[in-house]
Amino acid sequence: MWAICLLPFFWLSRLIWLTCIQNISVTDGLGANPIEFVHDYLGLWALKFLIITLSIKPISFLLHASFLNQYRRVFGLFTFFYSVLHTTAYIALEQNFELAPIWEDVVNRPHITVGLIGFLALIPLAVTSTSWGKQKLGNTSWKNLHGLVYVAGTAGCLHFILIRKGIQVEPIAYTVLFVCFLIGQIVFSFLRSKKNR
Amino acid sequence: MIERNIKGGTGVLIKYKRNWEVKSSEITSEKMFKTRRKFLRAALSSAIAIGPSPIFGATQGKTNIVSTQSNVGKKYLANNDEPTDYQSITQYNNFYEFGTGKRDPAENASKFKTRPWAVQISGACEKPGTYGVEDLINFDQLEERIYRFRCVETWSMVVPWVGIPLSKIIDRVSPTSHAKYVSFETLHDPKQMPGQREPVLNWPYKEGLRIDEAVHPLTLLTVGLYGALLPNQNGAPLRIIIPWKYGFKSIKSIVRIHFQADMPVTSWSESNSNEYGFYSNVNPDVSHPRWSQTKERRIGEFFKRPTLLFNGYGELVADLYQGMNLERWY
Which chain B residues are Cβ-neighbours of A25 within 8 angstroms? Predict the structure, then answer.
């Protein structure tokens, strides 16, 4: 499963290698603006992984395949992995580690503010993803804490919509998918709490 | 990475460079030159039949549509303003009529029909009418102008455009005293332009200039780049280049030019007036809600470089905005 999750990363690494070492033309490879390509690519995969992670529970429920649920952790962790790389690309490649412009972006530019919130929301999830974390927190508070994934998802989708100019289909499609899972989760927990009562 | 671009996968730039470093009179005899003009006319009138291959061939140095090397704006280029390679200029485009991805226009515009092409000129002028590209542009007078090109998304290029000053056309149709502004429209044809089937903007694309900006010697009515006809993805057959403004002002594939008394509504300010104003002059000191405009990444370079006021053409254009608050009139 790890190998599958790393495929986008390997693919990108291959393109970087081809572009830098083999001088392939700008029509293949990373294109005319490699930094923008890398940055966007990593961000998009972070969002893809987040949505895949959220899809596992409903899919396993519909298919009666509960063994799938064990993969939620690894997909969740890879959401974090690609978010870290995306954020690093922004700090290192876009801003060259200059703190003042980064801070200016965080304060003045809504898409950056929202993106940062999404990234920060993922950190406690990654930290408490181990069995140790789950034990330490106890089941209920662990589950409550991990509700932050919906904060991260909302921020991620908003970040994507805001960064595109005009009204564009792609970020809206991701958002619709995410909202479906969000609504599904709300309905699911509502029904369960009713049953428990 | 810089080296990669200068070398250019196919060596287009290197080959081409020899052409424009020498005066055209030195490389071609007059007779050859005239034959070439004839060939060009033939190529233009049958471009639909032949398809894009001869046009692409032209970029390899076979046909050169440039008659004169213009020095307008040239002295404002610095040593580090090397023309961006042909591949990057033609494979990395914002032309939302053909899709919102940077590579979409090159992919989706290949079958775009640019001949015959009519431009409707209307409004406050003495000679309104519908003109063909060949009527508007005297192909014996094409100039090459090497300009910096700065996108609002904070990337930039240097492009050797080919065209004639827009003022020549404007003079010909004699605007009246009511013509305070000029508005431009791109073709609206969702059948040919798949991007127009999506509500990205309120199609057709609309842009505008104040009349003094439109007749400014730097403003170029553009039909080519790198010595050859414009590839479709770069706004064929006819576009405008205003080098001191953000790229989206330089409207592509124009079908309508209208002279009017009021400030025209432009597509981007209609879509989001907080972010895109009418003037949209390149200005590092006026921050944009999305991007700090203090720096830009030149395509082919790793580190960003500082952005210049009016994209470095201040000496030529600052007078147009004397006494104006550039922060307010962004």
Answer: 8-10, 87
State percent of chain A over pLDDT 70. 97
Q: How is residue A26 annotated by DSSP?
A: T
For A35, the closest chain B residue by CA position comes to B302
Asked if A167 and B199 come within 8 Å (Cβ–Cβ), the reply is yes
The reply to whether residue A166 touches residue B201, judged by beta carbons under 8 angstroms, is yes
Q: What is the mean pLDDT of each run of 10 residues along chain B (330 residues)?
A: 35 34 38 43 39 40 77 89 94 96 95 95 98 93 96 97 97 97 98 96 97 98 96 97 98 98 97 94 93 94 95 96 92
Closest CA to B55 of B320, B299, B314, B234: B234
ipTM of the complex model: 0.88
Instruction: Among A31, A101, A111, select the one facing B290 at the smallest CB separation.
Output: A111
The domain locations on chain B are 2-321
Which of B198, B271, B292 minimises the CB distance to A104? B292
Give domain B2-321's CATH architecture.
Alpha-Beta Complex (3.90)
Residue type for B300, please?
G
List strands edge to edge, sheet with B254-260: B129-132, B118-123, B254-260, B181-186, B206-210
